[in-house]
Amino acid sequence: MTIPSILCYAFIAVVSIQVTYYLSFIFAFSIKRAETRLKKHMPVSIIICAKNEAENLKKNIPLILNQEYSNFEIVLVNDSSFDDTLEIMKAFEAENNNIKLVDVKVNEAFWGNKKYALTLGIKVSKHDFLVFTDADCTPNSKKWLEQISSNFSNEKSIVLGYGAYAKKKFSFFNKLIRFETVMTALQYFSYASMGSPYMGVGRNMAYRKDLFFNNCGFNSHMSLKSGDDDLFINEVANTSNTSLCFTKESFTVSEPKTTFKAWILQKRRHISTANFYKLNHKVLLGVFYMTQLLFWIFGISLLIIGFSWPLIVSLIGLRFVIQWLCFGFTAKKFEETDLIILMPILELFLITTQLSIFIANMISKPKHWK
């Protein structure tokens, strides 16, 4: 058997795996409609951990205080900021009796560790239902808190939401950031819908306080600088205790990174935690990424040498059509339809960027959460 023939068979296998993944995603999440649940308005504590976020706090805290919700407190955690973050927090606390402040001093044992700061915030919160977001996150509506909290029940102690990034006109880099965000959400919502939740995003998620303390909080991965959201969810989430919230009113919107270097550092922190996921999640996510990469390598190679090009073009077309359907339904759900037509180009840029990040993380690991 010739090398081109072996390459062709390998490409068929890769396309088959990719098609299987995307068909699973389509039926698990992409075509799934968001459910509007009954308003519950149970007492909720919103936890916001901030490091050098004075301007974002001034912008977003009033929007959170303005939520159409009857009973909530905001726990503001200052993680050793050196700008005006603490002063801004104190000003909000003085004017609002439902705001509580936690000032985290520099701690040598937990220096640069967001999990330590979050743990202190969780400890002082007075309600059992905790909602997490970041200082740079803007609620998409006044019903954000209502939508997220309505997914709690006697069985559901975790709520996974969607954290979008703001759109910037005429910016390919911005589209790449938003494409990666949609693809990540497509995967974690799909896996959760199939009964195997593996992560959430700290920009928009919720869980019960007793779930946190019954599982010893972040204790098993406290030494890792990142993973306060995805590693904790990977550890405690299961089929029965996890609910999904993806109504448009429930989104949060963050300002994306403005430089490629800053975004790469952020992605390096996020990707560094994946090695600590459960084995089945590592295998499934690893196979998905590797087949994405090999699809482009094998496909382009076979087209260049002209081996069985009608078959190769047909396989490429099949994979792209199914991927477009899956991504298109999801992008529409997340109000990211401008990304659909650019999907192949964005995917190629993303997987090559991810490859460079994997290589960089093998050489050295990111040391701080911010």
From TrEMBL:
Signal peptide (residue range): none
Keywords from the UniProt entry: Glycosyltransferase, Membrane, Transferase, Transmembrane, Transmembrane helix
Residue stretches making up the Glycosyltransferase 2-like domain: 45-211
Pfam families per UniProt: Glycos_transf_2
Residue ranges crossing the lipid bilayer per the database entry: 6-31, 341-363
GO MF term (any one): glycosyltransferase activity
Family: Belongs to the glycosyltransferase 2 family.
PANTHER family associated with the record: POLY-BETA-1,6-N-ACETYL-D-GLUCOSAMINE SYNTHASE (PTHR43630:SF1)
The protein, known as: Cellulose synthase/poly-beta-1,6-N-acetylglucosamine synthase-like glycosyltransferase
Lineage: Bacteria, Pseudomonadati, Bacteroidota, Flavobacteriia, Flavobacteriales
